[in-house]
C-alpha cells in the first residue's frame, strides 16, 4: 500500500520501503524505522511535509 511513496535520497528518488521499515501501530499511527540512523531527519521532514499537505 505504501510502495508508491518515493523519497529523495542524495538527489535520487527511491521507494520508502528501500530505506526504512514502515509498520502500523494502531488505526492512527505509522511507525517508520530507518535502516540507517542518519536518514531519520530526512524521514521526519518527509512526514512533516506530508502532514502539512493533508491538514490544509
TrEMBL record:
Superkingdom of the organism of origin: Eukaryota
SUPFAM superfamilies xref list: Ribosome recycling factor, RRF
Name of the protein: Uncharacterized protein
Amino acid at each position: 500500500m505504501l510502495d508508491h511513496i518515493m523519497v529523495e535520497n542524495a538527489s535520487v528518488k527511491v521507494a520508502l520501503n528501500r530505506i526504512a521499515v514502515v509498520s502500523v501501530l494502531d488505526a492512527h499511527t505509522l511507525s517508520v524505522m530507518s535502516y540507517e540512523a542518519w536518514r531519520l531527519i530526512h524521514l521526519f521532514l518527509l512526514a512533516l511535509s506530508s502532514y502539512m499537505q493533508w491538514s490544509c
